User: Fold this.
Amino acid sequence: GGVRLGAGRITSRRFSGHRRGTTPLPKDPAGSGAADSAAKMYALGRRFQIAGRPVEVASVTTGHIHDTYLVTYVDSARHARYIHQRINQHVFRDPPRLMENIERVTGHLRAKLESEQHPDTSRHVPSLVYAHDGRPYCLDEDGAYWRTWLHIEGARSHAIVHSPALARRAAAAF
Assistant:
């Protein structure tokens, strides 16, 4: 149970052999026509407290509000995956306030679970990754707000509930 950020339909592409400062990464592998590219994800990742370089960028196409990308970074032999989301400013007109609320809610949930000595809290409460300036978001060169989450490995999300059993499992999480 618990709140999880998972990836739905994903289109991805690996970028082997890329080294920082050499050949730029290819354009958006999803072919969605979005202005975002792997190079933009690389630049974005450098604004957050993320070690390593991206080796795979996947456009998550099941969401309806934000533009979402699952990005794999490599630092030495360690792989870590993150969710980058461009916050939809047509829906959320005050992204800093939105992020303040998210910090408040996730902080409260994390503290509650930790006080109950709940095992593996990080799988039940989404973890924000902070920008180098300490904020839970950053602005890109176009003035768009971005946030980043740690990807919860093995988590799944369902856009459609196909059975009563799945509905019961989702309800039990809350």
Remarks:
- DSSP finds three helices and seven strands in the chain.
